[in-house]
Fold:
Amino acid sequence: MRQIVLDTETTGLETSQGHRIIEIGCVEISNRHLTDERYHQYLQPNRKIDAEARTVHNITDEFLQDKPRFAEIVDKFIDFIKGAELIIHNAEFDVGFINYELGLLNRQAVTHYCQKITDTLALARKRHPGQKNTLDALCKRYHVDNSTRQRHGALLDAKILAEVYLAMTGGQVSLLVQGNPTESNNANIMKQLKPIPSQRAILVRITPSEEELRAHEQCLIAIEKASGGKCLWQKFMT
Structure:
């Protein structure tokens, strides 16, 4: 399935107060491989940015004056996410704003266009209950480099979240941890693992031919006889 990691920046926290999206950032994951496909757009929101929000992302009203409005880019945005699974941290917030923008244009909710939505915050809370699960905390936990993240930015945060999501769903830690998978156990194990490059080659799956399968079966039968019935692999195959 094609996956799109998405983040937004906004003029404030509440759509009920008329706050709008001012930046959308998306990156694509295909077969657990981060591709070069991107969607990034700053937007003119037709309102002022709250001072509190500006301290988070450092986007100014002056910077957005010549940027397009959501209505001008909505079709390209929908084309980019169409049919994909959306990966979002604290999805309720971003989806709420996207649906608000779509509603102003009498468009259907975002779930009409995408395959499904996965909330990495909910996923992290399930895997790490009682712990901090902000994006920065997850970067530290999974050894994802976020040194360039001085302030929030939709495209940068989407790229970082993609790395976190791939690490969090890779399964390496759960396979190696014995007993209670505590934070300290996970951290010690992660230090011993070499990070997998995001631009790694896609794994190729090779399916054996019928002739190879028959030869394999004959080999197992020979091992079974030679070992006096102790061929464990053959037992697993039955």
Q: What stands out?
A: The beta strands are 2-10, 21-30, 33-42, 85-88, 116-119. The chain has ten helices and five strands. Residues 171-183 have pLDDT under 50 and may be disordered.
